[in-house]
Amino acid sequence: MRAVENALGIVIPDNARIIRNLINAIQYIQDHVIHFYHLHALDWVDVTSALKADPTKTATLAQSISDWYNSSPTYFKAIQNKVKAIVESGQLGLFTSGYWGHPAYKLPPEANLMAVAHYLEALDFQRDIIRMHALLGAKNPHPQTYLVGGMSIPIDPNSQNAINAGSIALMNDIAKKSLDFVSKVYIPDLLAIASFYKEWAKIGSGVRNYLTYGEFQNDNISNTTNCWLPPGFIRNRDLTKVEPVDHTKVTEDVMRSWYKYSDGDGKAKHPYEGETIPNYTGPRPPYEFLNTEQKYSWVKAIRYDGLSTEVGPLSRMLVAYVSGHSRAREVIDMVLKKLGLGIDALFSTLGRTAARGIETLLIAEMLPTWIEELATKIKSGDLRIHNGEMWNPDKWPKEARGYGFHDAPRGALCHWIVIKDKTVANYQCVVPGGWNSSPRDANGVRGPYEEALLNTPITDPNRPIEILRTIHSFDPCMACAIHLFDPDGKQLVSVKVK
Amino acid sequence: MGTKDTIYEGLFNYGITRRDFMKFCTTMSATLALSSTSIPKIAEALQQKKKPYAVWLHFQECTGDTESLLRATKPSIAQIVLDIISLEYHETIMAGSGHSAEKALHDVVKNQKGKYFALVEGSIPTKDGGIYCVIAGKTAVEIAKEVCGNALVTINVGSCSCWGGIGSAKPNPTGATGTASVVPGIKYINLPGCPANAENITATIVHYLTFGTLPALDRYNRPLFAYGKRIHDNCERRPHFDAGQFVRKWGDEGHRLGWCLYEMGCKGPMAYQNCPTVKWNDGISYPIQSGHPCFACASNDSWDVFGPIYNRAPHVPGASYQATADKIGAAVVAGTAAAVATHAVIRTFLGYKQKERFSKEKNEADKMK
Question: What residues in B contact A299, CB-CB < 8 Å?
């Protein structure tokens, strides 16, 4: 959408920009909370250990770190009974395949019980707050109100079929609940859990370059640099400067990917010239292992200025920090201080997970401001949601091309489109999961996941929970199988990445 | 606190009172469009001994149906996965990974043979030996044959596993298709949609637990309780359609007042689903309510047949269509321009297939009356 708007030179109305910011904001909060509690926490939290906890001590612990209302001994006792009943039933469901009792679990039983309680609360929380996404986007997941040129959700304070004062009130209520949960549950849990796993500030550091396209636009054109979370590129972990982002520096090669390029697989191509021609050369299934000296991935090797680059909350927070985003600096410094860690600790598995929480807090704090911005526009009488100047394809130039920057919760995302004779001549998406899970490139340089797994200490090769911690810290988005090898080419372990 | 014997006790342990429980059963019976006499039956079913086992497979998908499941409200996702079913394998939300997760899956297939639910999200690629979707070294085709082939019933969650979804849109580079065509002969239910609505996923399972039978299905194996009527039949904007009041531009007065989106490309007259009654995200909204046309996400081949999204559907009759439906169906099949209400000046830019689909489904709906 932003790519098409860029190609056709469309400026969207203020209201459309604000609504897009609001949808993004609530999506970030919901996505990060789900990631922390439901896709990542059980790498650190032993559910079965919660059975050994003293509910009264758990309540004391919970009350010492937060004034969240749900923290009585009775409450934690009920949660413990719940876990007990599941374990005793012999039907563990989602918990069947966990690495329970693994020596790498470090939390005391009380902290485990508290975290399990919040795992359950977070399930309801995410479902509750995402209603704002549905209010503005029609439904979640897969919102439907995005249009080239604006949004299709009408605004009219005097209509029952449009965004009105009632909608603003609902959004404000959700914003309040969001900040409550994030500041009183998510952040205290993050700090409490991290304090037991500080060695993870030295593990999983990964590649040395970080990219964000920026998000939460303050003006109405695609790819503006005027964003609340600024765009930027950090090279070789140099925290003294941020380079401006140039989309022409994004390239992909397919030397190790199951595609072919018409002029040579090792030649890095910009997405405007991108090709997607499948060329599977791997073993016939069923198979045990892939050969990483040949093609081994359906992901292309995405590089920025030729460099293997990480995207995601850590990249956004680093760029915000170095760019002088004042609230980001305050919260990052506060978190590091509480954990007794220096800024370099951010380049790690722990840092990635902490950055996600920090970002969630920043966004939850901003949400009321963006809702107020929308209310103020409505008050001024501006009800525009769509710029229809280019809606009719007859008005399009014979040829056009454009790109659209977006930073999704998982990281930098951009689409490139080439339009010829009113139809799509080429379309390439370069997405966050692609950046982080990219395979080796034509020069043999590893992508972020692979690099981050180097030197990971593994207690038990048959139950490699340490690998999961690092891979999950990136918030991987595909259900796929990867096979991991140490630098000598000897197989370490095969892991299914969720 | 003793062993949890029944789903009801599980809910009770979770802090759900008897009163809440009966309320939940009432809501369920409403979603399933059942009479109030069924409420005790639902309550009874949920107080059975063991939770049924379930596994959830992911193939070529975006995890949107999983995200949808996580938004379930009646009952909530926590109740579903902890109290109602024993979901032993789900790549996104299960605790385990790797060999340990694979073992959980195979234990269910082996030990609960013929007794478990297989929920499937995503299309199955069949081209080039199935190499476009391989999990743990096995193709999706192979996994589906093993897991769906041994299940009590397969529930295809979302359009992709029903019939290929967006992955099967032309030119369908991976040969993507639905579960039932890869594993012929299985018992299955289709819950299409992009994604499937969480409330319909839940209601299907509860229906089975309550009555011990699968819900009544249409010719596409979709439950009638969720797909038995068109969006158009229950649309709150229908009076505006009948009155000829149409949105002409995004944000115009008609758009702000909730007029009909037919001119903006709405496929509600051809799309079967219960969005207008069940809605999404705890009843907050659904596409038409948010001012966007329905694009028939739950229809077979929706991308090829019902697109482009913003082009107006042809041959949707006006206020008097109930009386003239057969005539119009016949006219469409004959390839002639159907006579329609004066407000709808029909253009012919949509292909024959779309018209054919509409007339076929219309005839079928009439037969069911």
Answer: none
